[in-house]
């Protein structure tokens, strides 16, 4: 199982202001639309997201949502403080790895992003980490 840094999610009370900052000050730009996550609007688990990139790593700027855990039914809330995300080529192996290490996690499946199987867990300081794999939902 291989992990590669995919994106950093920052939560904000003012996504448009964050978007302007990262575009104007850090000169980040748009990513290829085919590389953006297809947010599952049907579930209402993620609000209006801004996506910016340096060409390699995406930043997802999302509205801070302290009640997301209640709506999603998952204990780990990736929209309260944000998270760092890695992409894997084997989500089942990584999930087993977490279990072997005794690390509790929330398995979101593809609830928030269509075609991405996501799991979220906390590091020792309470920072949220996402690991996801692109999956075929046919």
UniProtKB/TrEMBL annotation:
The keyword Transmembrane helix does not apply. GO terms for molecular function: dioxygenase activity. It holds the Pfam family Glyoxalase. Residues 4-134 form the VOC domain. Keywords: Dioxygenase, Oxidoreductase. This is Catechol 2,3-dioxygenase.
């Amino acid at each position: 199982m291989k992990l590669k840094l995919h994106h950093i999610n920052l939560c904000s009370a003012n996504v448009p202001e964050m978007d302007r900052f990262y575009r104007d000050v850090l000169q980040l730009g748009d990513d290829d639309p085919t590389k953006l996550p297809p947010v599952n609007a049907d579930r209402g688990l993620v609000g209006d997201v801004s996506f910016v990139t340096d060409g390699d790593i995406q930043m997802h700027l999302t509205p801070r949502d302290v009640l997301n855990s209640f709506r999603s039914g998952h204990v780990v809330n990736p929209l309260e403080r944000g998270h760092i995300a890695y992409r894997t080529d084997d989500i089942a192996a990584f999930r087993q790895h977490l279990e072997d290490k005794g690390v509790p996690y929330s398995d979101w499946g593809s609830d928030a992003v269509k075609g991405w199987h996501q799991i979220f867990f906390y590091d020792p300081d309470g920072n949220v980490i996402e690991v996801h794999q692109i999956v075929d939902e046919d």
